[in-house]
Amino acid sequence: MSPELRTRRDGSVRPARYRSLQWPVLIWLTLVWMALWRSFNWGNALLGLAVAVLVCLVFPLPPLRMRLVPRPLGLAWLLLKFAWDVVVSSFQVAAVVLRPRRQLRNAVVQVDLTTPSDFVLTVVAEMTSLIPGSIVVEARRSTHTLFLHVLNVRSTADVEKFRRAVLAQEQRVLRAFRNAPPSTETEEAHR
């Protein structure tokens, strides 16, 4: 059988491009369409759904196979610590910028994440970029490595401190979500 064809449960075959029609993606794209047009009525919803289907067929994405279950306490701690880091870093960046005649030293810091999860790589990169004073310059999916531009790095101790902070952020993300065991039905649907 051609790799572009996919067998359904009833034995019929359909092209592989139809796998890209995932309901969560279609609903999200439809809502984005409606928000862009600022019109939340049935006609605009149907037009948005048609555009979403067209986009998913023309630009297919791989299927989402995340079986993550949030842990309420871990997620609450992740969000609370993130909010605290944003506030503290905002004051630190303001203090650095407002100091007169101080030469800033910036650095690009490489952080090798410990987990091979693309989800964790993405969340850690986004959350770290949202904290003032650092931004992701590059994320290498193949090695799960982040390269971050960091403001006001004076020594190698500062580099190590920042690297430890990113790895701690990764651990908080891991504690906030756990992998759900795969169900037989879900595994069969992805084959």
From TrEMBL:
**Membrane disposition:** Multi-pass membrane protein
Protein name, as recorded: Na+/H+ antiporter subunit E
UniProt organism field: Nocardioides dubius
Keywords (alphabetical) are: Cell membrane, Membrane, Transmembrane, Transmembrane helix
Kindly list the residue ranges recorded as spanning the membrane. 21-40, 46-64, 76-99
User: According to its UniProt record, where is this protein mainly located?
Assistant: membrane
At the highest ranks, the source species' classification is: Bacteria, Bacillati, Actinomycetota, Actinomycetes, Propionibacteriales
Family affiliation: Belongs to the CPA3 antiporters (TC 2.A.63) subunit E family.
What Pfam family is a match for this entry?
Answer: MNHE
Cellular compartment(s): Cell membrane
NCBIfam families referenced in this protein's UniProt entry, alphabetically? PRK08965.1-5
